[in-house]
Amino acid sequence: KEIVLTGIKPTGKVHVGNYIAAIKPALQIAIVSDCTALYFIADYHGLTFIQDKEEYNHLSYGIAATWLAMGLDPERVIFYRQSDVPEIFELNWILSCLTPKGLMNRAHAYKAILDKNEQLGVDMDSGVNMGLYTYPILMAADILLFQSDKVPVGKDQIQHVEIARDIAEGFNRNFGDTFKLPKYVVDEYTAVIPGLDGRKMSKSYNNTIPLFESTEDLKKLINKMKTDSTPPNEPRDPDTSNVFLLYKEFATPEQIQELRNKYLNGISWGEAKQELFQVMNDYLEEPRKKYNELMGEPEQIDHILFEGAKKARAMAAPILEKVKTKIGRYR
Ligand code: TYM
Q: Residue 331 above 80 pLDDT?
């Protein structure tokens, strides 16, 4: 069976970009295709950024509760917390030893921090811990340990999946065919979901629409979305509008067609945003309840994640043994 794997790190509240580009397609693949799906909370990746006990804990459970609230069925998906699977960290070390430092120097996320530090005129490595620097290797371990075929992600993670491929190829060249080469799955329309200010929606830009805000806050945030200055009642192009882009993800095909016509005939941004708020709020009403319930029952989340980790470990163990044999750890 094809292996599909993806993760989300707990560095902020799960937002609409995470949902549209990763969670939604991943849940879809798990339902429609006969694959083995592994979805996880990349909590040790999150530790590279969040070093506050309460916040880290809350955000980690928040990701788990989000997946479950949006319909993840733990009977169908192997759903786990990265830190419950020690095999990942053993493979991480082995891969670290085989990864040239230069490959990490070229990683976009690391380079972005260096650029920012240069602009600020501070030390180039300011704010860079070793976990952050070697982040792509841990991600490669996440992916390769399960012989993943497909990794559904947003555009910002493409380079990381390519690095995982490079690392796998390097290992295979040196020790013989061992790892499958993973492929990213990115939808061209939702590869980059824009945030409130029009830049990529990102926890680090503070421009996100978290998935489970209260009704009032959701409305306020949607009203803050940046739009162009087309006067009210003049036609606007639905296909270049961020408001419409989000609308399409939460509305039915009939609703989409209807609103598309309204855009073409002229609609004010105020009304367009009200329509978006309405479909999002309807879509999220039940999941929001479920999310809040789950956040009050962390033991239930733990139980699900521990069961998932058992299954993940059972899959990982023979692959890690194979790797250890290949490198000469055993005779
Ligand atoms: P993270 O936690 O930053 O984001 C989770 C997923 O959401 C996608 N995403 C977006 N997609 C479109 N538009 C946006 N504005 C947007 N913002 C976020 C991301 O591309 C991602 O798919 N390194 C990963 C976590 C990870 C992982 C893995 C993923 C760790 N190990 C193994 C896949 C496989 C990350 O930081 O994602």
A: no
Residue 318 annotated as binding? no
| Axis-axis angle for helices 298-327, 53-69 (nearest 10) | 100
pLDDT confidence of residue 230: 86
Q: Which amino acid is at 317?
A: A
Average pLDDT over the chain reads 96
Please indicate if the annotation marks 193 as binding a ligand: yes
Pair of tokens at residue 319 = 């692959």
Contacts of 206 (CB under 8 A, 6+ apart): none
In this prediction, residue 233 has a pLDDT band, given cuts at 50, 70 and 90, of confident
| 3-class DSSP assignment, residue 267 | coil
Listed in sequence order, the residues at least 6 apart from 48 whose beta carbon sits closer than 8 Å to its beta carbon are 129, 131, 132, 135
Using DSSP's 3-state secondary structure scheme, residue 97 falls into helix
Question: Which residues, including other chains, have CB under 8 Å from residue 162's CB and lie 6 or more apart?
Answer: 184
C-alpha of residue 186 to centroid of ligand 1, in Å: 11
18 is in an annotated binding site: yes
Distance between CA 227 and CA 247 in Å, rounded? 14
Q: Which atom of ligand 1 is nearest to the CA of 191?
A: 12
Does residue 187 contact residue 25 with C-beta atoms inside 8 Å? yes
Pocket of ligand 1, beta carbon within 6 A: 5-9, 17-18, 21-22, 42, 45, 139, 142-143, 151, 153-154, 156-157, 160, 192-193, 200-202
Domains of the chain, with CATH numbers?
Answer: 3-193+298-327 (3.40.50.620), 212-291 (1.10.240.10)
Percent of the chain's residues with pLDDT above 90: 96
